[in-house]
Amino acid sequence: MSDFAIGVASFPALLLLIFMRVPIGLAMFLVGLFGYIFLNGDTTIALARLKNETFSTFGNYSLSIVPMFLLMGHFATLGGMSQALFKAAESFLGHRKGGVAMAAIGACAGFGAICGSSLATAATMSRVALPELKRYGYSGGFSTATLAAGGTLGILIPPSVVLVIYAIITEQNIAKLFLAAFIPGALAALGYCLAISVYVRVFPGRAGVRERMPMAERFQALVKVWPVLLVFGLVVGGIYAGWFTPTEGAAVGALGTATIAWFNRGLNKSTLVESFFTTARSSALIFLIVFGAAYYNGFLGLTQVPQELSAWVVDQGYSPYTILILILVFYLLMGCFMDSLSMILLTVPIFFPVVASLDFGLVSWEAMQAAEAVKAMADPALQVSSEMLASINQSIAEGVALSREQMNAIGINVTKGMANRAAMEHTAIWFGILVLIVVEVGLITPPVGMNLFIINAMDKQTPMVETYKAVVFFVASDLVRVVLLILFPAIVLFVL
Question: Is the pTM for the entire model greater than 0.85?
Answer without folding.
Answer: no
